[in-house]
Amino acid sequence: MTAFGVPAERSVVLPNGISVTVPLALTGAERARLREEMAAGEGDLLLLNAGRLDPQKGQDLLLAALDGVPSPVHVALVGDAVAARRTADHATLLHRQVQRLGLERRVSFLGWRDDVPRLLAAADGYVPTARWGGPRAAALGPGGHGRRLPHRLH
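^ thats the sequence. predicted structure below, dont judge the formating
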């Protein structure tokens, strides 16, 4: 900012709110245990999506795309609906969409988790699906944990 003539004493640096850390190194047994918790088969490509179950977050788009992707791709959705009716209704719609598309064996709803970095380390990739807001945050968070961020599923 000082290069643009703003006095240094009038500038404040606000650090990014996302902690970018070194990717976790899991033991083979721990990775296998976490993948089993996420209901992924041994040979599955395991993709993770994390965020509240809300129309803004676009998990429905991921489920629709998964319908056209051959196995063995498994998606684990981490997150829950919040107290607002809109998100509770959306969570119900996501469960129905999985049933309607016959994806029960290929999609896991994990609910709220406080071990997302470990889940990311056990997954093969992270799929950001937000319709608006935060694409950089999605890239910084999971990307900072060494996960690939696909642009397309097929």
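The chain is about 35% helix and 10% strand.
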